[in-house]
Amino acid sequence: MKKNGYMRLMVSVAVPIAVQSLLGFIVNLLDTLMLGQLGEVPLSASSLANQVFFVVTMVVNGIGSGAGVLISQYWGRKDMTSIRKILTYTYVTAFAFAAAAALAAVFLPGPVMRMFTKDEAVIEVGVSYLRIVGWSYLFFTMTAATTCVLRAVHTVRIAMVLSAVALCVNGGINYILIFGKFGAPQMGVEGAAVGTLCARAAECILLVMYLVKCEKKLGIIGHFQRLIRGEEEKSPSLTGQYFRTSIPVIVNELFWALGESVVSMVLGRMGTEVVSANAIYANISQLSGVVVTGVVSAACVIVGNVIGAGDFKSLRMLKKQFQGVSVVVGIFAGVVMLACMFVVPNLYNVSEATRDYARQIMLFGSAVELCRAMQTMNMMGILRGAGDVNFAMLNDLLFLWLFTIPLGMMAGLVWKWPVPAVYIVLKLDQFLKIITSEARMHGNRWRSYLVH
Q1: Strands, DSSP E only, in 295-443?
Q2: What is the C-alpha to C-alpha distance for residues 428 and 412, in angstroms, rounded to an integer?
């Protein structure tokens, strides 16, 4: 495929993924804006409680992404038998983890909340939220795992439609139940949890309808019908290959998500105002990063397809293209963050101290956005797409757990540095991973693929 052909393919895959991410951002923003009208305790409680969902999101997406690496390469060589074998492993692994997380959230919400904060008022509100929203993890898992594997074969528009449905359902139910509109009870945080649960159930039901009536490339429903009847296609076991590829991705996403949760714990012990400020920043970071998510996901799929087809000569050209795109979208993300810094904190019913913290974090966060785009493209787009999953895993584990978290805990909890300084320490790994990932792509293994 020629240069322009790859760019058109990137756009066709990246745009729906970016729109899906944007719609997901709007869902989260509506939650925080509505709950923000109730004060800092409900906002902080939902933010900390959703750290569990954040872990579920990252792990399930890691499971789906690990499968997607293999599926995209098998799709490049048109090996449908191996693809269907990977599908089985993917769903079993994803649902096993989601079930464990749902049980913890629903039946052990108190201990879960106490991992993040000591504020009893925040814990009480967070417990009521988790008991309801925990059931949504199962619906989310079905949707997320499926859209990940569909993405590997360039089926991306259905995910965008599902996110639009989730936005409408969640926004409508939240408005009615959080504030008690149209004669409904005023449920506050619990209303937000009900809205999330209904939205996840709605998009899951719609996805199953799509799989039954429309999905033809992978034949997911037919595959599982054959499994139930004991008619699975005979093929060599791919268990070893699946887990060699998927486990590093799963571990990568899990420990990165856990690391981000530890970061939230650090901020949570610096005060409720800091937690609320970080919640405001996190939503804008998600907004500014939607395009990054789209192009990185597209790059991962395309690199996998190209390697699966054996077209190694195109990889050097693709590396330059994708890295150039990452710089452009990183600058765009930073500009969005700066623009929002002057407006968004004022939309929340929080203290002036919280608004000041949010503005300070967003100011430094605008520079972080560029670094995030560049290192994510290298790590999660190019390297992961080519199957080099161990390197990305080791980078995240080493930088986050041996450098960022220990130093951040010392800066925030022992040395009592100002909030912006602690935030900078917690984000230094974004810059360092640009250097290590570029060095990796000029190493012995990659020289034949990406340099010459």
Answers
A1: none
A2: 15
